[in-house]
Design a protein that fits this description.
Elements: H1 3-46, H2 50-55, H3 59-62, E1 63-72, E2 75-84, E3 88-91, E4 96-98, E5 103-105, E6 109-110, E7 115-119, E8 123-128, E9 132-141, E10 153-156, E11 158-160, E12 164-165, E13 169-172
Antiparallel strand pairs: 1-2, 2-9, 3-8, 3-11, 4-10, 5-9, 6-9, 7-8, 10-13, 11-12
């Protein structure tokens, strides 16, 4: 092989090698940049920095939920008050109660009317966007006797209109009492 042919062969292979190394380096740098940008985005979403706070509030700041009970002649009235921060909403259909066997609840009544939104996950759903919403139900016992110190768990879910749905929440009723009056079966509607 002549020297000229050998130099041409060497130059061609050197060019391929340099091109391969440069391409690999570029791909590596770009993928690492992409990973760090994605990680930074997730950190901004969930980190407790001041910029993240302006995007999404912690669930207990976005929604304050307080419940109380009051004995009535028909059972125990349970009121659940939602203080909803502007830019957030609570799903009407995600409001649930978990209570011991033998306790019943009437359907919820609300002091506000829900609005219907087209939710990306659930489709058309009723939600509460008002600043203050109170849900009320009456709890009774199925055997006509009062149940004392029965724990009631309140389930609910809310979202930020900016695009974050909080996981479903479960709150224990602070009073921890249900149906603390004697109920005669004739009084149950």
């Amino acid at each position: 092989m002549s020297i000229q042919k050998s130099n041409k062969y060497f130059s061609k292979n050197l060019y391929k090698l340099v091109l391969t190394v440069a391409s690999t380096s570029l791909v590596t740098v770009l993928s690492m940049t992409s990973i760090s940008v994605q990680a930074a985005g997730l950190n901004d979403l969930f980190k407790n920095s001041s910029s993240a706070k302006s995007k999404f509030l912690p669930v207990d700041e976005a929604f304050q939920v307080v419940s109380n009970t009051k004995a009535t002649s028909k059972g125990t009235r349970l009121s659940i008050s939602f203080e909803i921060t502007p830019g957030h909403y609570v799903y009407k259909d995600k409001l649930t109660l978990i209570f011991p066997k033998g306790i019943n609840a009437t359907p919820f009544t609300f002091n506000q009317s829900p609005v219907s939104i087209n939710d990306p996950t659930f489709g058309q759903v009723p939600v509460f966007t008002q600043r203050s919403v109170i849900a009320t139900t009456t709890l009774t016992t199925s055997n006509g006797k009062g149940a004392k110190n029965a724990p009631i768990i309140i389930g609910w879910q809310g979202c930020a209109t900016a695009g974050l749905c909080y996981p479903p929440e479960k709150n224990q009723n602070q009073d921890r009492y249900c149906c603390d009056t004697q109920i005669n079966s004739e009084q149950i509607d």
